[in-house]
C-alpha cells in the first residue's frame, strides 16, 4: 500500500509538472511577443530615448528564449523520470527567476525616469529640426503618429528658426507633420492643399505615456512569469524527491524478492546449501574484548 501511494503521488506530480511546463512554453512565447513588440515601439522613438531604456525589453526577450529551451528539460525529465534532468530544470528555473525579478526592477526603475529624460531630450532636439535630417525624421514621425505638435504645444516651434516652408500660424511656422486636417481645392489650374486644423497637444505627454505604459507592461509580464516559475520550481523539486523515493523503494523490493528466492531455493535444496559460496562482509563497527 505505501508503494502504491508513492507511485500515485509521483504520477500526479509528474503530470502537474508537465502541465506547468506546457504553460511555460505558452507564456514564454507570449513574453517574447510582448518584448519584441515593446522593443519595436522603443525603436520607433529611439532618437529620444537613452540606450539603457532598451535593456528591459531585450532582457525579457532573452529570458523568453531561454525559457523555451529550459522547458525541454522539464518535459523530458518528467517523462523519463530522470532526477538529474528535473533537478537541472529546477535549478535553471531558479536562476532565470532571479533574472526576471532583476528585469522587473529595472523596468520599474527606468519607468520613473522616463518623464525627465524625454523632456530633456525633446527640448534639446527641437532646435536642430531644420539642420539635422535624423531630428527632422524623428519629430515628423512622432507628430504624425501620436497626433501632437511640439514638445509642450505647437508654440514651441516659435523658438525655432524655420529654413524650409511650413504652416504659418500667428507668425509661427510649424512643420507639415503638425497638420491634423487639410482642405483640398482647385483654384483655376492650381491645386491647393491647405491645412485647416493643427494638433494642439504637445508630444511630451503622449510619448511619456507610451513609454511609461510599455515599461509597466514589461515589469508586469516579468513578475507574472516569475510567479508561474515559483510553482514550477516547487513541482520540480517535489517530483525529483518522489522519483528518488520511488527508485529506492523499487530497489528495496527487488532486493527483498531476490532474498526470498534465495531462501526458498536453499530451503528446498538443503544438500546444496554447503556448496554455496561464503561471502564475507566487512564489519566497520567496534569490537569489545
The average pLDDT score comes to: 78
Sketch the topology as an H/E string, one letter per element: HHHHHEEEEH
Secondary-structure class: mainly alpha
- Uncertain ranges: 285-289
Largest sheet, in brief, is: 2 strands, antiparallel
Measured by DSSP, the beta-strand proportion falls in 5-15%
What spatial form do the alpha-carbon principal axes imply? Answer: rod-shaped
What level of helicity do the residues show? 55-70%
Tally of helical segments: 6
Overall strand count: 4
Radius of gyration: 35 Å
Q: Kindly, what is the distance between the CA atoms of the first and last residues, rounded to a whole number of angstroms?
A: 45 Å
Widest sheet: strand ordering? 1-2
Structure commentary:
The protein is mainly alpha-helical and 289 residues long. 65% of the residues lie in helices and 8% in strands. It has six helices and four strands; from the N terminus they run αααααββββα. The protein has helices at 2-44, 55-80, 83-111, 114-125, 133-145, 203-268; strands at 167-169, 172-174, 179-187, 190-198. The strands form two sheets. Strands 1-2 form a two-stranded antiparallel sheet. The chain is rod-shaped. The relative contact order is 0.14.
